[in-house]
């Protein structure tokens, strides 16, 4: 750990000597190349939580669990580039999606998007600390609390001074270590645990659904909710948006296509550790499924390979945690201080940097506080994805449709949230009329999700056909029972309500909007030249 965090701190220290400005602290000058950006996107999304959650899915649902988790997660990354090109076209030098929403609509839509990202990044940071703390507790004499303190201190030290640039440059080294470790570790554990004979000997440990590659239980509880969540992550997540604004505009497509394959292969492979644990009849240590991956490693790996495994997990959680810190700092710098406190023209770059660094410290402290509760990682991820689902249609429509108004955006998100929460957490009894109404909304949500995916790649007409046809085909199979799956229903209802309300309030609004003004309303806060950033001899 000293070597790992010492190395990342050295990289950050070397960057900090370049005296970067406030905009570079958030987006690295909007000109990162293909290699660094693809590695950073891959490393950011191959986080410890996704590894642990994929293994949990394999342990709960069998062979199809990791495939549902990894395949749809990879699809999320792929979905970014068609929408990303449009976002960069209208706002080439923005720092956050919320900043663009301020330019497009005003303060309420901006704060909704910024607020959801603050919540999402703190939850993400918390789950990564939980993963690291569990690993250190299992593989060393240190306690869980000591483990999360060490992880938090190491990440904060190397991210604090150089911000986003430190995050993306350390991501490159971290993803190389992660991919190398995965290629070696998974086969070693597989053969050490018995190889192909494991599946024959342990078949009795599986239920019929767990042994079924096309398990309906796995699809309805894991696959389908994640399909709904991935589009929300692609559009709403600031860690992704930050890389979208940082990479060169002409490299958006190859960057995210490359990250798609890297993420999918790695996460499905790691998830197979959960499947192996299921076949072997292993009970998670202390009853906590978050312990499955380190438990398998500690049981079947030699000390040298165990050290390699440790680097893989620490690298994965660090690469995402530093991205969360960078995302939170950008939101507080650009959306809170830059636009709502000081104002774009009066924002002081030095104060912005101070705000960004203080944000990182406060966010890490909050992550440490919540990490002591040791939430279930899979539940956290699905909840945040569904929460962002309320924003997907209003955000996407705001980049393409000039009729969307601030009132339509705001009311649709609030209405979707008001219905999502009671459905997701069972606050209302699903009697027959309420259950049927929920199923109808969920079925409309299926059409919305598939239609928006089609829109990204093929345009408006294919999207409308896809949405209508998929809704009609799904209705006979979903109305009457879908409300029994609260996670899936909650996500789909969020999409449906926000879409219907936003469309209904916008279609007859008569509003028009010139997308060209977004370029004028977004852009650099720090206009100091390179000469301004280099101290004079007298200053030294």
TrEMBL record:
Keywords: Cell membrane, Ion transport, Membrane, Sodium, Sodium transport, Symport, Transmembrane, Transmembrane helix, Transport
Keyword Membrane applies: yes
Subcellular location: Cell membrane
Bilayer disposition of the protein: Multi-pass membrane protein
Pfam families: SSF
InterPro entries according to UniProt: Na/Glc_symporter_sf (IPR038377), Na/solute_symporter (IPR001734), Sodium:Solute_Symporter (IPR050277)
Transmembrane intervals: 28-47, 67-84, 111-136, 142-161, 173-193, 213-235, 256-280, 300-318, 354-371, 377-401, 408-428, 434-458, 465-486, 492-511
CDD domains to which the protein is assigned, alphabetical: SLC5sbd_DUR3 (cd11476)
Protein family according to the UniProt entry: Belongs to the sodium:solute symporter (SSF) (TC 2.A.21) family.
Protein name: Sodium:solute symporter family protein
Source organism per UniProt: Micrococcoides hystricis
